[in-house]
Amino acid sequence: MSSIASNRISAAILFLLSLPAARINAQQLIPMPNGITAVSAGTTIQVTALRNDILRVRVWRGDAVPEDASWAVLTSARTSSVRTVPEPNGFATTQLRVTLDDQLRLKVSDLAGNVLQEDAAPVQWKGSQFTVSKTRTATDHFYGLGDKPGPLDRSGEAFTMWNTDSFGWQSYTDPIYKSIPFFMEINHGRALGLFLDNTWRTNFDFGRANPAEYNFGALDGPLDYYLIYGPEPKQVVTDWAWLTGPTPLPPLWSLGFQQSRFTYFPASQLREVAERLRKDKIPSDVLWLDIDFQHNNWPFTVNEQAYPNFSGMVQDLGHEHFKLVVITDLHIASQPRIGYAPYDSGLAGDHFVKNPNGSIYVGKVWPGPSVFPDFTRAQTRQWWGTLYKTFVADGVAGFWNDMNEPSVFDGSTKTMPDDVQHRIDEPGFRKRTTTHLEIHNVYGMENSRATYDGELALRPNERPFVMTRASYAGGQRYSTTWTGDNSSTWDHMRASVPQLVNLGLSGFSLAGGDVGGFAGSPPPDLLTKWIELSAFQPIDRDHSAKGTRPHEVWTDGPEQESIRRRYIEERYRLMPYLYTLAEETSRDGVPIDRPLFLEFPHAIENGTPFDATTGGSEFLFGNHILVAPNPSPEEVAPYTIHLPPGTWYDYWTGERYTRAAKSGGPLDLEQRDLVLAQKTLTVTPTLERLPVYVRGGSILPVAPLTQSTSEVPVGPLTLRVYPLAPGLNTPGETCAGEVYTDDGHTFDFRNGAFARIHFTCSMAADGSMSLAIGKQEGTWKPWWTQYRVEVVGWTPKEGKGSIDGNKSALTREGGNWGITIAAKPDGAKIDLR
Questions:
Q1: Coil, strand or helix: which one is 500?
Q2: Which residues form the catalytic set?
Q3: Domain 698-832 in CATH: superfamily?
Q4: Superfamily (CATH H level) for 3-137+192-228
Q5: Where are the beta strands (DSSP E) in 427-539?
Q6: pLDDT of amino acid 663
Q7: Deepest in the core among 369, 398, 507, 522, taking most CB within 10 A?
């Protein structure tokens, strides 16, 4: 909106407020080119359309329009605008209809008249505190809010957003580390996202207090929220990325297996772990160092007695294809006048937060008395980034920002006092000083932002890697994350699935949990099952607390190690697929681990999310692979797996299953030996098997096994084809896949140095197969020079094939028939019969 239009609207609002109270009613509407403003009894509501499917709602009291600024929403999105069509008491876009009643209650519908959201009552104010109430029905389902513990569906639950150091959190613990006040509501198959852009302590009640309503509110700050319409859930996720930004493309090595502990001490122990990983041929890419590697736990230092020749150690690890990630907590040891550069330079630059009397705030953390950078100042974030110069010069690959809720040991709140002062000095914001109550929830995100930008400044053409514990909406632009200090229990392993899925829906596509559990010592079977599960999660980091028994893969003997190694190896074979997913999410925000309803929004006739039938234990690893862990993993009894409609293959055996579509007719009886239609799929859990299924119509890119992502695979790229069952596929299903690759670590892909190749396939009525390899996009030369095309669950009738019309014999490898061809940039057409 132009400043002239904004001034006119403000003037009109002031004029209306000057009228006698009796004349102020909801009929006094101010049409706007992109929405509407209404004023009643001193309250103003402004609803604008950023796009035809995204609305912004702002409500305030009095004549002072709140500051229009955001830590989360991209400026390009927040200032976007589309023209709307005025209607009585509201307006319409090409997708939505907005109306306001006499009490300024908001109703949003689609153009067919389906109500997507409706205020149950006018906004309630209690001083600066506000509450917004919406109508709720028994058919509403809610997802998101980051990694809050509990069920995947938030319906009937209540939550608080206040970043908290929650060591050993449990399924009932709230709040924990992150504040992502975004959720998606699904009702009768129609999805609507809502984001409350308020960094103060906020709360969400999805029908716990009153089943007929859900509500959200804050203790203070702006009433500023966004509505994101699907109607498909995947569209909401994509639009959420448009609003707050997607996860950047990570370095390839960050997708490999990662080994960590609090702490590998001294350096010889870290070297021993690296040596054992290579000796036992456990594929791995990353080693981590926790706080004990520092001098007296002072960030940006090294304990030179325990880690002599630190840079030499980093180089030695690099020769063995290991990247090193080290921790840098956000507090700085309060150590004046002894030459501790982070403190001295921070003091000289006036970079630390202060008490109300102007003195520097000091709180106790791992180093003892500590001071805290004022990350709401752009110049402070720039200074923080310079502190990484020595580590970067030493070859450290990435950084870990922990304790950034912020966690403070002294005091009953476990964080900074409410009245600590933060100075906002940031482009797009009014320069001002505010209290910690406003900044607390965004503090950890701005810490990770400073680290990301610092890495980028020091290595301009290298993709940064940052791991953060605390964050806010939009924090995915700067870092990966993990679920914090979990515990070594079956319940926490089970909880990791809904946590990571909801994190993905909330923007954090790259996330993981401490594999094996941080607090406590996992029994052997628990650690094995957790390693199996984490092979299909975005970040795969085995981490444990000080004083616990070892978590390394070889712990518990050769039988357990063999099973664990096999799943890590499978992750590396699927690395082309995983990296392709990471590149996809960097463009559209669709998460790597995703709920079933994201790909199958209409699997159930009445629009109920399919995950409601699974209890949230199953999830999709990308759009092709379904992982079905035991919903009660400590039990040995058989359990039911719920496959969505369509054709599915057992990933391990190739056995085919088909689930009829909701509108499908009777199945072809001749396919009976291949089909288990509408029958319960029951499995008996075993230690060595995690049930995994591949969607019919998938073409998975699979690589030869390597010991790290730094190694160039030797052999062809396998295109593993999972054909659709003829006559049994659900409407709209196709057979397709793709692969993406580049150098794995620089930004050269932005200039075309990448390779993206699409694949399609089809099966004829006579059982013959055709596969098309598309023309390569991009200029990067992939590592593979051949393709091995293999078809799962298919037997040729003639054993013959052709490549671009030239005859070639079929061969059988690993039980699958296929053909090996040269990889050419212009693609190829393959026929198998």
A1: helix
A2: 402, 405, 485
A3: Golgi alpha-mannosidase II (2.60.40.1180)
A4: glycosyl hydrolase (family 31) (2.60.40.1760)
A5: 432-435, 466-468, 480-482, 511-512, 514-515
A6: 39
A7: 507
